[in-house]
């Protein structure tokens, strides 16, 4: 099983063997990869009573300490209790209660500074994050990367031969034990540090309304189906699952805008035709912006943030279309292959929001958004993730043009198009080729079709020093701050993210809007 982009290898095998069901034998572990919507819906949705378990992954679960996390939990009573508490917070009807935090974060992203992880840290723990290099956001990202990288089936032998977990760290070839020890520190930290901080604030009376404080208060007020440890686990899961996935999707959005200026223009025209002058766009505008909605769906389809989803597990033998699926198989939904199925998505590698406009792909009887997985394990954060991405996309596009940076040779710099590995799939090193051209609007006010005042993306890593920002037509300086996490995860891929857009303290233009 290749570590780099295994979803593409599986898709290729599927084509080579002309089958949407591929069986792999990974050191004795049976892995079945499903590469079509038909097969995934039939097995993971319709037969969800037997396909909703997760495999035991000794590396990420026992050794790295992630057994507490809903996403890795075995299907059963404990999972049900955790999932119920999660759904209570994130079901579709509950999502509007996050709109305020999402709106604030998206607007801050365009006018001041904010991090993508801000919403989830505030929803889970009521903690306000620092504008740059916030330790809570950094911890969530590092921990999520560590778990997502280790959970790829076939990545570690110990997952196939669990007895290896007893091998001491000094034993030749047992480097996985060092990786596990380091990962364990992160899983403990993500679970304990922010939770302890919220509890401390509850004692001093400073805790803000948030999932942790509210669930703990309810617990004090009477008999509940959950315990304090459930609240702690669920909060840590939100925190770990929410930050990296949404960041990966937004990074893909920037890549898509860089490489598809026509789509960007169309979305901006739609936004300009709807948003009232002098106002930010808001959730109420959603229905009037079908193209932007389609663009968000295409971002999630074109480069899925989680191309292999999370592994499901089949305890008992099953038959499907004449194939015997062995008991104790890991089942992977190849979301990448499904989202790039030429039959459903002609010209699948092109970024074309239009494909979602005629509504045919939105058939409610089908899983129109495979990006969020399947069956009873479908992503419970999907409604919140979609609304967070929507408000960020609409706020950024209302105010900025995103174009390729021009190199010293006068030619546009092409983005690298490279992506990271693991279960979460973010574009790497996107930023050196990115230019944000404000202001389509004066901040807080709406579009002024002022001539392109090309302003700067600061290519340097020094985010806060205005000397690095380069005003092109005078007046305006905006620093697109970026953050490169060069921590080589498991000695593998350098990794960068779009985190902050930050105008500096210089006054913004007050050009009159006609
Ligand atoms: C673009 C953003 C996101 C994407 C693409 C995404 C995708 C996924 C996928 C593919 C799965 C596995 C589903 C399966 O097993 O079939 C999953 C599970 C999960 N996601 Fe998300 N997710 C996103 C955002 C979020 C957010 C914001 C949260 C929390 C607030 C979240 C919480 C979870 C949890 C807890 C699970 C495990 C569910 C279970 O095992 O029962 N996700 N997600």
Automatic annotation (TrEMBL):
Chain sites annotated for binding heme: 379
Cofactor: heme
Pfam families: p450
Gene Ontology molecular function terms on file: heme binding; iron ion binding; monooxygenase activity; oxidoreductase activity, acting on paired donors, with incorporation or reduction of molecular oxygen
Pathway: Secondary metabolite biosynthesis
Keyword field: Heme, Iron, Metal-binding, Monooxygenase, Oxidoreductase
Entry's family note: Belongs to the cytochrome P450 family.
Stated name of the protein: Cytochrome P450
Organism, as annotated: Mycena metata
């Amino acid at each position: 099983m290749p570590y780099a982009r295994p979803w593409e290898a599986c898709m290729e095998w599927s084509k080579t063997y002309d089958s949407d069901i591929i069986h792999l034998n990974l050191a004795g572990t049976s892995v079945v990869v499903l590469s079509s919507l038909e097969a995934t819906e039939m097995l993971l949705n319709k037969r969800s009573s037997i396909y909703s378990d997760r495999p035991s992954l000794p590396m990420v679960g026992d050794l790295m300490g992630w057994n507490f996390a809903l996403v890795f939990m075995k299907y059963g009573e404990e999972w049900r209790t955790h999932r119920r508490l999660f759904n209570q917070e994130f079901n579709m009807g509950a999502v509007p209660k996050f709109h305020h935090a999402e709106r604030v974060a998206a607007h801050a992203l365009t006018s001041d500074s904010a991090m993508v992880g801000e919403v989830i840290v505030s929803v889970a723990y009521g903690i306000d994050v620092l504008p740059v290099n916030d330790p809570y956001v950094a911890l969530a990202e590092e921990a999520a990367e560590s778990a997502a990288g280790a959970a790829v089936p076939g990545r570690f032998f110990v997952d196939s031969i669990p007895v290896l977990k007893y091998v001491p760290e000094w034993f030749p070839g047992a480097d996985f034990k060092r990786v596990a020890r380091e990962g364990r520190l992160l899983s403990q930290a993500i679970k304990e540090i922010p939770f302890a901080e919220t509890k401390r604030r509850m004692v001093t009376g400073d805790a803000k309304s948030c999932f942790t404080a509210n669930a703990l208060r309810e617990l004090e007020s009477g008999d509940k189906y959950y315990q304090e440890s459930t609240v702690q686990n669920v909060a840590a899961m939100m925190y770990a699952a929410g930050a990296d996935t949404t960041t990966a999707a937004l990074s893909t959005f920037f890549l898509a805008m860089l490489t598809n200026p026509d789509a960007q223009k169309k979305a901006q025209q739609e936004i300009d035709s709807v948003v009232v002058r002098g106002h930010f766009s808001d959730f109420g505008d959603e229905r009037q912006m079908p193209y932007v909605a389609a663009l968000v769906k295409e971002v999630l389809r074109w480069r899925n943030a989680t191309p292999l989803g999370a592994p499901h597990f089949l305890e008992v033998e099953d038959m499907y279309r004449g194939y015997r699926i062995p008991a104790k198989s890991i089942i992977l939904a190849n979301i990448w292959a499904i989202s790039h199925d030429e039959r459903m998505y002609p010209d699948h590698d092109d970024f074309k929001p239009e494909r979602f406009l005629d509504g045919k792909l939105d058939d409610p009887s089908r899983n129109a958004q495979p990006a969020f997985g399947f069956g009873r394990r479908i992503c419970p954060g999907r409604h919140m993730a979609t609304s967070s991405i929507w408000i960020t996309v609409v706020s950024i596009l209302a105010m900025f043009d995103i174009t390729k940076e021009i190199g010293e040779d006068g030619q546009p710099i092409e983005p690298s198009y490279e992506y990271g590995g693991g279960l979460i799939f973010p574009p790497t090193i996107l930023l050196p080729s990115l230019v944000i051209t404000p202001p389509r609007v004066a901040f807080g006010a709406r579009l002024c079709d002022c001539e392109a005042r090309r302003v700067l993306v600061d290519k340097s890593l020094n985010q806060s020093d205005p000397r690095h920002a380069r005003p092109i037509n005078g007046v305006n300086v905006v620093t697109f701050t970026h953050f490169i996490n060069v921590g080589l995860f498991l000695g593998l891929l350098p990794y960068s993210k779009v985190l902050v857009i930050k105008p500096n303290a210089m006054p913004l233009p007050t050009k009159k809007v006609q």
